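Q: I have two molecules that I believe assemble together. Could you output structure tokens for the complex as a whole instead of separate predictions?
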Amino acid sequence: MKTKVRKATAGDAGIILGFIKELAQYEREPDAVEAVEADIRKQMESGHSPFECLIAEVDGAPAGFALYFFNYSTWKGKAGLYIEDIFVSPQKRGCGAGSALFRELGTIAGEKGCGRIEFAVLDWNQSAIDFYSRFGARPLDEWTVYRISGPALDDLKTASGSEKDRG
Amino acid sequence: MKTKVRKATAGDAGIILGFIKELAQYEREPDAVEAVEADIRKQMESGHSPFECLIAEVDGAPAGFALYFFNYSTWKGKAGLYIEDIFVSPQKRGCGAGSALFRELGTIAGEKGCGRIEFAVLDWNQSAIDFYSRFGARPLDEWTVYRISGPALDDLKTASGSEKDRG
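A: Yes, here they are, computed for all two components at once.
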């Protein structure tokens, strides 16, 4: 069994979308994926892709992926690596694909001079928590992420204007 | 009292660092800031700044800031706006600076076609939670952010190599 990690290119958009959908199903949100292959391909071809992606292969076949981008820490004054998704297909587990992806993310963080690697984990996903803990990941227990989306975001997008200068 | 929001430029690096330090103090981590003004200026001048920043002014004097970057949602297949820091100096509150910053972030999210705005809030910061809730922000209660930094990150940065290809 040969496990290998490579950088994804725009030609992998279909493979990436497949993993996104598989992960959404695993996260018990099978209908949450609105992304389409053509958009992912276009974003990756744009020259300023909003993300980068690694593909793990076992014996030459795609087994998992890690999709990430760079965030910024105002405390450290430098970029960090944020893993949006990391996933190995259940039937391809046990071949070291997850660890290989994670180590490659570490290498990239080193090359880019990142001060930290971060990612969000579902609280019930104990196997993921155990996996990340082996790499020294620590939960930011004091913090909760808040999100504005849907109609609330539409309201905020159009709320600016006359109120910007206040007497 | 006139409240105004403007885009920050590299010349604002000192003002930005001042707010970063004030916010760290407010978050009870006064010694956490390693960022230095020269690095922030250099990053903003680089042409590919890892962040963007807004400054709120009350009667022409800096009153607060919002520092943000763009992340990516694999479910939506599009970018999101992530607010790393949003802060108004305690003595400048009540002039609408926070709301003006937030509305401007909404406008930018609209211009960039973002599918969501996100930010992390300290669990004890009830006044912030109340503020964000007025804009329709909802906590992602099921998720916890994990971080790898310090020696654990150093280990991971150098863990790659011979193990990448596994027999």
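A: One point stands out. Helices of chain A lie at 13-26, 37-45, 97-111, 126-133, 150-157.
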